C-alpha cells in the first residue's frame, strides 16, 4: 500500500473548489479493482477545547475533558476528503450522496490529545442508483487505535463494471414512532456546523450554493444530525458504537421530529410529510 502523509490538515473549501472544477468530467462506469491502494495519513491532529465547546453549543450537552465520537469522526473527515479528491480516486466527489455511518469509540480520547488519522477506501459495490464506496477513517494515539468510522457514499449514475445493479428495494411504509422531541433547524445551521467541523460542502451552506449544485434548498449535515441524535444517549468517556442510515434529506430551515428508544434505537422524520430522515442506534461496548 502506498502511504501519503499530509503536512497539515487539508483545507476543505479548497478541496471542494477543486472537485467542483473537475465536475464537468462525467464518470459513467468504474471497474471493480479501480480503488487506489492508498492510505492518506495526518499526524498531530487533535480536537481543541474551543472546538468542542462550539460543538456542544450546537448539539447540546456540557463540554468535558473527553471528545465526543462525532467530533472525532469530524477530525478525520478532511483526511478522508483528501483521499476522495485524489486524481486516482475513481468516483466523483461532487454529488456524492452520504448513505450511512458506523463508528466505534474504542477508548476515551482527551481534549487536545495528539492523534494520527489514517484514511483508506474499500468495497466498491453495485447499488440500484449507481456505485457505493466505503471510506474507513482510523484514529491512533501512538500505536493504540482509539476510534474508527466507516462512511458509505453513493456515486449516482456510475455503473460498476462486471456487476449487475440490484433492483430498487420497495419502500416500506414508515411507522411514525412516539416523538421524544422536535428540532427546529435554522437556515444558518449548515454554516455554523461547517465552522465547527470544517465540512464546507456547498449543499449545506445556503440556498444559492445549493441551487448551483442542483438542489432547491440547502440541507443539514448528516454528522450534525448524528451528533444531535446521540446527545444524551452515551458519554464521551464510555466506549461505544453507533450507526446511522440517511433517508430523505433535511431541508433548511426545517423541523425534525425525533424519537429515541430505551434500547438506543433512534429515528428522525418529517411529521408533515411522513418521511423518514434517518434511523440508527447507539450501544455501549
Please, what is the average pLDDT?
A: 92
Strand content: 25-35%
Major beta sheet summary = 11 strands, mixed
Q: Figure out the total of helices.
A: 6
The separation of the N and C termini measures 31 Å
Q: What share of the residues lie within helices? A: 10-25%
What string gives the helices and strands in order? Answer: EHEEHHEEEEEEHHHEEEE
Q: Strand order of the main beta sheet, please?
A: 1-3-5-6-7-4-10-13-12-11-9
What is the tally of beta strands?
13
> Over the alpha carbons, how many angstroms does the gyration radius reach?
18 Å
**Basic shape:** globular
Oligomer status: single chain
> What would you call the structural class?
alpha+beta
Low-confidence stretches: none
Secondary-structure blueprint of this entry?
Elements: E1 2-6, H1 12-21, E2 29-30, E3 38-45, H2 49-59, H3 69-84, E4 97-105, E5 115-127, E6 130-141, E7 144-156, E8 159-160, E9 181-185, H4 189-197, H5 207-212, H6 222-230, E10 240-246, E11 254-260, E12 266-270, E13 275-284
Describe this structure in words.
- This protein is α+β, with helices and mostly antiparallel strands and 285 residues long.
- The protein is built from six helices and 13 strands.
- The protein has helices at residues 12-21, 49-59, 69-84, 189-197, 207-212, 222-230; strands at residues 2-6, 29-30, 38-45, 97-105, 115-127, 130-141, 144-156, 159-160, 181-185, 240-246, 254-260, 266-270, 275-284.
- The strands form two sheets. The protein has an eleven-stranded mixed beta sheet with strand order 1-3-5-6-7-4-10-13-12-11-9, with helices on one face. It has a two-stranded parallel ribbon with strand order 2-8.
- A hairpin with a 4-residue loop joins strand 12 and strand 13 (275-284).
- Helix 3 runs antiparallel to helix 6 (222-230).
- It starts with a strand and ends with a strand.
- The model has no long low-confidence stretch (mean pLDDT 92).
Amino acid at each position: 500500500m502506498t502511504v501519503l502523509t499530509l503536512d497539515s490538515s487539508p483545507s476543505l473549501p479548497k478541496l471542494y473548489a477543486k472537485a467542483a472544477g473537475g465536475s464537468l468530467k462525467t464518470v459513467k462506469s468504474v471497474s471493480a479493482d479501480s480503488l487506489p491502494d492508498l492510505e492518506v495519513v495526518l499526524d498531530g491532529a487533535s480536537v481543541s477545547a474551543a472546538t468542542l465547546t462550539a460543538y456542544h453549543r450546537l448539539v447540546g450537552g456540557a463540554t468535558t475533558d473527553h471528545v465526543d465520537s462525532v467530533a472525532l469522526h469530524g477530525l478525520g473527515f478532511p483526511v478522508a476528503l483528501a483521499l476522495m479528491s485524489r486524481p486516482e480516486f475513481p468516483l466523483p466527489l461532487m454529488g456524492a450522496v452520504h448513505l450511512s455511518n458506523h463508528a466505534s469509540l474504542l477508548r476515551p480520547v482527551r481534549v487536545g490529545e495528539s492523534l494520527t488519522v489514517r484514511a483508506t477506501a474499500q468495497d466498491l459495490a453495485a447499488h440500484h442508483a449507481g456505485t457505493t464506496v466505503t471510506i474507513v477513517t482510523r484514529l491512533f494515539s501512538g500505536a493504540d487505535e482509539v476510534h474508527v468510522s466507516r462512511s458509505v457514499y453513493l456515486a449516482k449514475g456510475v455503473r460498476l463494471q462486471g456487476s449487475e445493479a440490484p433492483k430498487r428495494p420497495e419502500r416500506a411504509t414508515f411507522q411514525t414512532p412516539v416523538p421524544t422531541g422536535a428540532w427546529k433547524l435554522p437556515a444558518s445551521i449548515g454554516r455554523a456546523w461547517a465552522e465547527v467541523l470544517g465540512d464546507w460542502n456547498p449543499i449545506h451552506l445556503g440556498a444559492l450554493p445549493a441551487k448551483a449544485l442542483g438542489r432547491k434548498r440547502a440541507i443539514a449535515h448528516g454528522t450534525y444530525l448524528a451528533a444531535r441524535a446521540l446527545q444524551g444517549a452515551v458519554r464521551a468517556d464510555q466506549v461505544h458504537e453507533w450507526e446511522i442510515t440517511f433517508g430523505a434529506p433535511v431541508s433548511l430551515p426545517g423541523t425534525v421530529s425525533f424519537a429515541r428508544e430505551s434500547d438506543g434505537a433512534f429515528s428522525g422524520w418529517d411529521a408533515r410529510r411522513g418521511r423518514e430522515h434517518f434511523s440508527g442506534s447507539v450501544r455501549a461496548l
